[in-house]
Design goal:
- The protein is an alpha+beta fold.
- The chain has ten helices and 18 strands.
- It has three domains: about 80 residues, no CATH class; about 120 residues, no CATH class; about 90 residues, Arc Repressor Mutant, subunit A (Orthogonal Bundle), CATH 1.10.10.10.
- A five-stranded mixed β-sheet has the order 7-8-9-10-11, with helices on both faces. A four-stranded antiparallel β-sheet has the order 2-3-4-5, with no helix packed on it. Strands 16-18-17 form a three-stranded antiparallel β-sheet.
- α8 packs across α9.
- The longest helix has 14 residues.
- Bound molecules: zinc ion (ZN).
- Zinc ion binds next to loops.
- The site of zinc ion has 7 residues, from loops.
Length: about 300
Amino acid sequence: MDLLDLLSACIEQGRTAIAPALVDADERQRLEQLHRVGALVETQSRVVICPRCEAHSVRIMTVGSGFCVDCGPVSLSPKDVLRLTPDGDWLRRRIAQALHLTKDQAWMLVPERVWRLGDVGRGGGRHRVLYGQKLTDSMVQRMLLAMWQTHIGRTRAVMVTTSPTDRVFLPGADVRLVPLGAAFRVRGTGLIADEAVWAGALGASPRVDQIRIGPFGPGYRDVLLPGESVPIPLTPAQSALLRMLWERRGQPMHREMLMAQAKLDLDKPVQAFPRPKYPEANRAYRLLVRSNRQGEYWWAEECAESTSDGY
Ligand SMILES: [Zn+2]
Protein backbone atom coordinates (compact mmCIF):
# COMPACT_ATOMS: atom_id res chain seq x y z
CA MET A 1 0.00 0.00 0.00
CA ASP A 2 1.23 3.45 -0.91
CA LEU A 3 2.06 5.89 1.89
CA LEU A 4 -0.91 8.13 1.25
CA ASP A 5 -3.29 5.18 0.91
CA LEU A 6 -2.11 4.02 4.32
CA LEU A 7 -2.62 7.50 5.73
CA SER A 8 -6.11 7.56 4.19
CA ALA A 9 -6.94 4.22 5.77
CA CYS A 10 -5.79 5.46 9.19
CA ILE A 11 -7.94 8.58 8.89
CA GLU A 12 -11.00 6.71 7.61
CA GLN A 13 -10.77 4.08 10.34
CA GLY A 14 -10.46 6.82 12.93
CA ARG A 15 -7.19 5.38 14.19
CA THR A 16 -5.84 7.98 16.58
CA ALA A 17 -3.53 5.77 18.66
CA ILE A 18 -1.59 3.80 16.06
CA ALA A 19 1.06 1.56 17.62
CA PRO A 20 3.95 0.98 15.21
CA ALA A 21 5.32 -1.69 17.57
CA LEU A 22 2.23 -3.85 17.05
CA VAL A 23 2.13 -4.07 13.25
CA ASP A 24 4.24 -6.02 10.77
CA ALA A 25 7.63 -4.71 9.70
CA ASP A 26 6.40 -3.51 6.34
CA GLU A 27 3.61 -1.40 7.73
CA ARG A 28 5.80 -0.20 10.60
CA GLN A 29 8.29 1.15 8.09
CA ARG A 30 5.60 3.10 6.30
CA LEU A 31 4.13 4.42 9.54
CA GLU A 32 7.60 5.57 10.58
CA GLN A 33 8.03 7.30 7.25
CA LEU A 34 4.70 9.09 7.67
CA HIS A 35 5.88 10.06 11.15
CA ARG A 36 9.14 11.46 9.76
CA VAL A 37 7.44 13.63 7.16
CA GLY A 38 4.98 14.96 9.74
CA ALA A 39 1.78 13.29 8.54
CA LEU A 40 1.58 11.34 11.78
CA VAL A 41 2.47 12.91 15.10
CA GLU A 42 3.21 11.37 18.46
CA THR A 43 0.43 11.19 20.95
CA GLN A 44 0.05 10.13 24.55
CA SER A 45 -1.63 6.90 25.44
CA ARG A 46 -2.54 6.06 29.02
CA VAL A 47 -3.23 2.40 28.33
CA VAL A 48 -1.18 0.04 26.17
CA ILE A 49 -1.15 -3.72 25.53
CA CYS A 50 1.17 -5.49 27.99
CA PRO A 51 4.46 -6.11 26.18
CA ARG A 52 5.10 -9.22 28.32
CA CYS A 53 1.89 -11.27 28.02
CA GLU A 54 0.38 -9.34 25.07
CA ALA A 55 -3.01 -10.29 26.53
CA HIS A 56 -3.94 -7.56 28.97
CA SER A 57 -4.00 -3.84 28.81
CA VAL A 58 -1.54 -2.03 31.00
CA ARG A 59 -2.17 1.31 32.61
CA ILE A 60 0.90 3.49 32.35
CA MET A 61 1.92 4.51 35.89
CA THR A 62 5.04 6.57 35.32
CA VAL A 63 7.34 7.12 32.40
CA GLY A 64 8.70 3.68 31.58
CA SER A 65 6.52 1.53 33.79
CA GLY A 66 3.00 0.17 34.02
CA PHE A 67 0.92 -2.42 35.83
CA CYS A 68 -0.55 -5.61 34.31
CA VAL A 69 -3.15 -7.67 36.22
CA ASP A 70 -1.28 -10.87 35.30
CA CYS A 71 2.37 -9.88 35.14
CA GLY A 72 2.38 -7.20 37.85
CA PRO A 73 4.70 -4.25 37.29
CA VAL A 74 6.16 -4.23 33.77
CA SER A 75 8.70 -1.89 32.30
CA LEU A 76 7.72 -0.09 29.14
CA SER A 77 10.19 1.07 26.53
CA PRO A 78 9.55 4.25 24.54
CA LYS A 79 8.67 1.96 21.62
CA ASP A 80 6.00 0.17 23.67
CA VAL A 81 4.22 3.40 24.47
CA LEU A 82 4.74 5.25 21.18
CA ARG A 83 1.39 6.04 19.60
CA LEU A 84 0.86 7.98 16.40
CA THR A 85 -2.09 9.98 15.22
CA PRO A 86 -2.80 11.62 11.85
CA ASP A 87 -2.12 15.36 11.77
CA GLY A 88 -4.97 16.86 9.80
CA ASP A 89 -3.36 20.31 9.70
CA TRP A 90 -0.27 18.86 8.10
CA LEU A 91 -2.30 17.17 5.41
CA ARG A 92 -4.44 20.18 4.53
CA ARG A 93 -1.41 22.49 4.53
CA ARG A 94 0.58 20.21 2.28
CA ILE A 95 -2.30 19.77 -0.15
CA ALA A 96 -2.67 23.55 -0.31
CA GLN A 97 1.06 24.00 -0.86
CA ALA A 98 1.19 21.38 -3.60
CA LEU A 99 -1.60 23.21 -5.43
CA HIS A 100 -0.17 26.67 -4.68
CA LEU A 101 -3.23 27.62 -2.66
CA THR A 102 -1.13 28.92 0.21
CA LYS A 103 -2.59 32.41 0.09
CA ASP A 104 -6.05 31.06 0.82
CA GLN A 105 -7.19 30.25 4.30
CA ALA A 106 -8.59 26.75 4.87
CA TRP A 107 -12.23 27.01 5.84
CA MET A 108 -14.09 24.25 7.64
CA LEU A 109 -17.42 23.54 5.95
CA VAL A 110 -18.52 20.44 7.88
CA PRO A 111 -16.88 20.10 11.30
CA GLU A 112 -13.88 17.77 11.16
CA ARG A 113 -15.02 16.40 7.81
CA VAL A 114 -14.89 18.91 4.96
CA TRP A 115 -12.68 21.95 4.37
CA ARG A 116 -12.52 24.45 1.56
CA LEU A 117 -8.84 24.93 0.72
CA GLY A 118 -8.99 27.57 -2.00
CA ASP A 119 -9.48 28.04 -5.72
CA VAL A 120 -7.33 27.04 -8.66
CA GLY A 121 -7.58 28.66 -12.06
CA ARG A 122 -9.42 31.83 -13.02
CA GLY A 123 -12.51 32.84 -14.94
CA GLY A 124 -14.32 29.94 -16.57
CA GLY A 125 -11.59 27.50 -15.56
CA ARG A 126 -11.89 28.21 -11.87
CA HIS A 127 -12.35 25.26 -9.52
CA ARG A 128 -12.90 25.26 -5.81
CA VAL A 129 -10.66 22.76 -4.05
CA LEU A 130 -12.11 20.90 -1.09
CA TYR A 131 -10.70 18.29 1.23
CA GLY A 132 -13.04 15.74 2.77
CA GLN A 133 -12.60 12.83 5.17
CA LYS A 134 -14.96 10.23 6.65
CA LEU A 135 -17.57 11.12 4.08
CA THR A 136 -19.30 7.76 3.80
CA ASP A 137 -21.68 8.79 6.60
CA SER A 138 -24.88 9.84 4.81
CA MET A 139 -25.44 12.51 7.45
CA VAL A 140 -22.19 14.21 6.45
CA GLN A 141 -23.17 14.02 2.80
CA ARG A 142 -26.51 15.68 3.57
CA MET A 143 -24.84 18.44 5.58
CA LEU A 144 -22.44 19.13 2.77
CA LEU A 145 -25.21 19.27 0.17
CA ALA A 146 -27.21 21.63 2.37
CA MET A 147 -24.42 24.21 2.34
CA TRP A 148 -23.32 23.64 -1.22
CA GLN A 149 -25.32 26.50 -2.69
CA THR A 150 -23.99 29.12 -0.29
CA HIS A 151 -20.34 27.98 -0.08
CA ILE A 152 -19.61 26.51 -3.46
CA GLY A 153 -22.49 27.69 -5.61
CA ARG A 154 -22.00 27.18 -9.29
CA THR A 155 -18.23 27.06 -9.14
CA ARG A 156 -17.03 23.64 -10.18
CA ALA A 157 -15.33 21.79 -7.38
CA VAL A 158 -12.66 19.16 -6.90
CA MET A 159 -12.66 17.31 -3.61
CA VAL A 160 -9.56 15.48 -2.48
CA THR A 161 -10.69 12.75 -0.15
CA THR A 162 -9.45 9.90 2.00
CA SER A 163 -12.87 8.20 1.71
CA PRO A 164 -13.68 5.50 -0.86
CA THR A 165 -15.11 7.63 -3.67
CA ASP A 166 -17.64 4.99 -4.72
CA ARG A 167 -19.38 5.44 -1.39
CA VAL A 168 -19.78 9.21 -1.54
CA PHE A 169 -23.01 10.45 -3.12
CA LEU A 170 -23.46 14.16 -3.68
CA PRO A 171 -26.33 14.39 -6.18
CA GLY A 172 -26.63 17.74 -7.91
CA ALA A 173 -23.19 18.96 -6.82
CA ASP A 174 -20.74 19.69 -9.63
CA VAL A 175 -17.79 18.01 -7.96
CA ARG A 176 -15.05 15.66 -9.00
CA LEU A 177 -13.85 13.34 -6.22
CA VAL A 178 -10.14 12.58 -6.26
CA PRO A 179 -8.63 9.97 -3.89
CA LEU A 180 -5.75 11.44 -1.87
CA GLY A 181 -3.42 8.60 -2.85
CA ALA A 182 -3.98 9.22 -6.56
CA ALA A 183 -3.84 13.01 -6.41
CA PHE A 184 -0.51 13.39 -4.63
CA ARG A 185 2.76 11.76 -3.81
CA VAL A 186 4.97 12.33 -0.79
CA ARG A 187 8.14 14.14 -1.64
CA GLY A 188 10.55 15.24 1.04
CA THR A 189 8.32 16.55 3.83
CA GLY A 190 5.64 17.73 1.45
CA LEU A 191 3.35 16.55 -1.29
CA ILE A 192 3.48 16.97 -5.03
CA ALA A 193 0.42 16.94 -7.24
CA ASP A 194 0.03 14.17 -9.79
CA GLU A 195 -0.15 16.23 -12.91
CA ALA A 196 -2.18 13.78 -14.99
CA VAL A 197 -4.78 13.31 -12.27
CA TRP A 198 -5.16 17.05 -11.78
CA ALA A 199 -5.32 17.76 -15.49
CA GLY A 200 -8.16 15.23 -15.64
CA ALA A 201 -9.91 16.55 -12.54
CA LEU A 202 -9.78 20.14 -13.77
CA GLY A 203 -11.03 19.15 -17.22
CA ALA A 204 -9.85 20.69 -20.45
CA SER A 205 -9.60 24.09 -18.82
CA PRO A 206 -6.83 26.28 -20.21
CA ARG A 207 -5.92 27.13 -16.65
CA VAL A 208 -4.52 23.68 -16.00
CA ASP A 209 -1.31 25.34 -17.12
CA GLN A 210 -1.29 27.17 -13.81
CA ILE A 211 -0.23 24.04 -12.03
CA ARG A 212 3.52 24.00 -12.06
CA ILE A 213 5.32 21.10 -10.45
CA GLY A 214 8.00 22.53 -8.21
CA PRO A 215 10.36 24.36 -10.56
CA PHE A 216 8.86 22.63 -13.61
CA GLY A 217 6.10 23.61 -15.99
CA PRO A 218 3.25 21.23 -16.90
CA GLY A 219 4.53 17.93 -18.21
CA TYR A 220 8.02 18.86 -16.99
CA ARG A 221 8.43 20.58 -20.34
CA ASP A 222 10.28 23.56 -18.95
CA VAL A 223 12.16 24.57 -15.83
CA LEU A 224 12.28 27.88 -14.02
CA LEU A 225 15.57 28.78 -12.39
CA PRO A 226 15.60 30.48 -8.98
CA GLY A 227 15.18 34.23 -9.27
CA GLU A 228 14.29 34.08 -12.97
CA SER A 229 10.94 34.71 -14.60
CA VAL A 230 11.30 33.06 -18.02
CA PRO A 231 11.12 29.24 -18.00
CA ILE A 232 13.72 27.33 -20.02
CA PRO A 233 12.23 24.78 -22.46
CA LEU A 234 13.44 21.19 -22.08
CA THR A 235 13.59 18.30 -24.53
CA PRO A 236 11.95 15.05 -23.36
CA ALA A 237 15.37 13.59 -22.48
CA GLN A 238 16.42 16.69 -20.53
CA SER A 239 13.11 16.76 -18.75
CA ALA A 240 13.29 13.06 -17.80
CA LEU A 241 16.77 13.45 -16.31
CA LEU A 242 16.01 16.59 -14.32
CA ARG A 243 12.73 15.15 -13.10
CA MET A 244 14.39 11.96 -11.78
CA LEU A 245 16.96 13.94 -9.84
CA TRP A 246 14.45 16.48 -8.57
CA GLU A 247 12.15 13.76 -7.27
CA ARG A 248 15.05 12.32 -5.27
CA ARG A 249 15.40 15.67 -3.57
CA GLY A 250 19.16 15.89 -3.37
CA GLN A 251 19.79 12.19 -2.79
CA PRO A 252 22.60 10.94 -5.04
CA MET A 253 21.64 8.60 -7.84
CA HIS A 254 24.11 6.49 -9.75
CA ARG A 255 24.48 7.21 -13.46
CA GLU A 256 23.33 3.76 -14.54
CA MET A 257 20.20 3.88 -12.45
CA LEU A 258 19.50 7.40 -13.58
CA MET A 259 19.76 6.40 -17.24
CA ALA A 260 17.66 3.30 -16.71
CA GLN A 261 14.90 5.20 -14.96
CA ALA A 262 14.96 8.03 -17.47
CA LYS A 263 14.95 5.35 -20.22
CA LEU A 264 17.96 6.90 -21.93
CA ASP A 265 21.10 5.42 -23.38
CA LEU A 266 23.83 7.97 -22.75
CA ASP A 267 27.23 7.78 -21.10
CA LYS A 268 26.69 10.97 -19.14
CA PRO A 269 23.60 13.04 -18.39
CA VAL A 270 25.28 16.20 -19.66
CA GLN A 271 25.22 14.70 -23.17
CA ALA A 272 21.50 15.41 -23.21
CA PHE A 273 22.32 19.09 -22.71
CA PRO A 274 24.80 20.00 -25.49
CA ARG A 275 25.71 23.64 -25.02
CA PRO A 276 25.89 24.67 -28.69
CA LYS A 277 22.39 23.39 -29.37
CA TYR A 278 20.71 24.07 -26.01
CA PRO A 279 22.66 26.84 -24.29
CA GLU A 280 19.86 27.67 -21.86
CA ALA A 281 19.11 24.06 -20.92
CA ASN A 282 22.84 23.52 -20.48
CA ARG A 283 22.97 26.48 -18.12
CA ALA A 284 20.04 25.03 -16.16
CA TYR A 285 21.73 21.63 -15.94
CA ARG A 286 24.94 23.14 -14.60
CA LEU A 287 23.05 25.09 -11.99
CA LEU A 288 20.66 22.35 -10.90
CA VAL A 289 22.74 19.18 -11.03
CA ARG A 290 25.80 18.14 -9.04
CA SER A 291 27.95 15.05 -9.52
CA ASN A 292 31.01 13.35 -8.09
CA ARG A 293 33.79 11.13 -9.42
CA GLN A 294 31.89 8.01 -8.38
CA GLY A 295 29.35 8.63 -11.09
CA GLU A 296 26.66 9.86 -8.74
CA TYR A 297 24.35 12.72 -9.58
CA TRP A 298 22.02 14.75 -7.44
CA TRP A 299 19.77 17.75 -7.48
CA ALA A 300 21.44 20.85 -6.06
CA GLU A 301 19.31 21.20 -2.97
CA GLU A 302 19.90 24.93 -2.63
CA CYS A 303 17.84 25.32 -5.78
CA ALA A 304 14.97 23.22 -4.54
CA GLU A 305 11.83 25.12 -3.83
CA SER A 306 11.13 25.59 -0.17
CA THR A 307 8.60 23.17 1.22
CA SER A 308 8.86 24.65 4.67
CA ASP A 309 5.83 26.29 6.14
CA GLY A 310 4.74 29.12 3.97
CA TYR A 311 1.11 28.68 4.82
ZN1 LIG B 1 0.88 -8.88 31.19
